[in-house]
């Protein structure tokens, strides 16, 4: 993380804090934390957090085991390291008292046990949510961030293309075998993390969040494959639906319906359109063919340092799209105990225009 960028993001956070009446913001290990330092620490029982006061220099409370990873920022933030024999919450509470801080916000991912301990040691302290402040800052990506998301999308597209090219047959394989193969390809392509690889075949494809099982894929089965991971710190997420050998005619009908709905959303992305309106575009097309009861989730979610973040493309969200927003476009149809379809791409509103970051085949692919 560039030091100037860290300073800017801390300053911008303080300006947002003024609007919310916060005297300090505590941000634990999470994508929010990564927003400031460009590092992605795993949340553990060892307390790690950046504390941003309304005025003045931010502080970083960090385990001594990890302090070397942050020492380069010693001029930008006060670095306070602690040993395993110490209580980091004591250090934090003392820091708040020294700064006469009585109202704090915490990010959503700060463990509740830490919040409980902070409050227990300082009962008069007012604790409120602070993630909405950071969400507003993270909502609009820089061109550099969009380029990073583009690279991540290109890498996940490479994984999908290799999977399609090298899968000589799919009938008889289990969902878990497909999952294992795709995850291996992701790590081989440089992903530092695989968040999920969900494979649902046949009737399992009608469950949007089906992870996978030992079910063997059969002829004519639709197979919904949704997978996501982090590449150089930024998230990639995509979904494609394929079929084993020849599809049922009725399945082809709903596949084409979902594909057309997704295409229409892409064609209507522009600055000023609301998230709710974009969702209704997909929903109206699917409802027009009387499948509305089978479209059971939102049309999309934002993506960046986290897999799911603002903006959410969902009914009732009147947020207007702006340059810098990046989100998924993934309508679907799920007929219980029969089959499901979902097609997902990531779309960015960049300074140079609308970009669809994923570019793998959206036509129905049949594998033997």
End-to-end separation in angstroms reads 47 Å
Provide the number of structural domains.
Answer: 2
Based on secondary structure, the structural category is alpha/beta
CATH class of the largest domain: Alpha Beta
Spatial ordering of strands, largest sheet: 4-3-2-1-5-6
Helix segment tally: 9
- Strand fraction band? 25-35%
E-strand count: 17
Main β-sheet: number of strands, strand sense, barrel status? 6 strands, mixed
- What is the CATH topology descriptor of the largest domain? Creatine Amidinohydrolase
The overall pLDDT average reads: 97
Rg value: 23 Å
Give structural notes.
The chain has 368 residues and is of the alpha/beta class. The protein has two domains: 3-138, Creatinase/prolidase N-terminal domain (Creatine Amidinohydrolase, Chain A, domain 1), CATH 3.40.350; 140-367, Creatinase/methionine aminopeptidase superfamily (Creatine Amidinohydrolase). It has nine helices and 17 strands. It has a six-stranded mixed beta sheet with strand order 4-3-2-1-5-6. The chain has a four-stranded mixed beta sheet with strand order 7-8-9-17. Strands 12-15-16 form a three-stranded antiparallel beta sheet. Helix 3 crosses helix 4 and helix 6 packs across helix 7. It is elongated. The model has no long low-confidence stretch (mean pLDDT 97).
């Amino acid at each position: 993380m560039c030091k100037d960028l860290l300073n800017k993001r801390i300053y911008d956070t303080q300006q947002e804090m003024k609007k919310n009446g916060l005297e300090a913001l505590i941000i634990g290990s999470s994508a929010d934390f990564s927003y400031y330092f460009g590092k992605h620490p795993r949340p553990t029982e060892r307390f790690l957090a950046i504390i941003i006061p309304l005025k003045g220099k931010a502080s970083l409370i960090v385990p001594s085991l990890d302090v070397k990873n942050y020492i380069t920022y010693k001029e930008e933030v006060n670095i306070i390291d602690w040993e395993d024999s110490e209580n980091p919450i004591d250090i934090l509470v003392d820091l708040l008292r020294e700064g006469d801080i009585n109202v704090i916000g915490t990010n959503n991912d700060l463990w509740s046990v830490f919040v409980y301990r902070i409050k227990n040691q300082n009962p008069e302290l007012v604790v409120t949510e602070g993630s909405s402040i950071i969400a507003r800052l993270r909502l609009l990506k820089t061109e550099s961030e969009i380029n990073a998301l583009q690279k991540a999308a290109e890498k996940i597209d490479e994984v999908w293309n290799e999977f399609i090219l090298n899968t000589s047959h799919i009938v008889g394989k289990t969902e878990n075998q497909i999952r294992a193969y795709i995850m291996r390809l992701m790590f081989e392509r440089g992903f530092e993390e695989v968040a999920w690889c969900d494979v649902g075949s046949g009737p399992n494809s009608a469950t949007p969040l089906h992870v996978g099982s030992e079910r063997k894929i059969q002829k004519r089965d639709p197979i919904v494959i949704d997978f996501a991971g982090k590449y150089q710190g930024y998230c990639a997420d995509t979904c494609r639906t394929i079929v084993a050998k020849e599809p049922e005619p009725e399945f082809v009908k709903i596949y084409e319906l979902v594909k057309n709905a997704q295409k229409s959303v892409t064609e209507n992305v522009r600055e000023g359109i609301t998230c709710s309106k974009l969702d209704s575009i997909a929903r109206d097309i699917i409802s027009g063919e009387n499948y509305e009861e089978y479209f059971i989730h939102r049309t999309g979610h934002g993506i960046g340092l986290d897999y799911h973040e603002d903006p959410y493309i969902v009914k009732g969200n009147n947020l207007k799209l702006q340059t810098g927003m990046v989100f998924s476009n993934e309508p679907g149809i799920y007929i219980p105990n029969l089959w499901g379809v979902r097609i997902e791409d990531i779309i960015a509103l960049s300074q140079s225009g609308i970009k669809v970051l994923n570019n793998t085949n959206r036509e129905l692919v049949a594998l033997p």
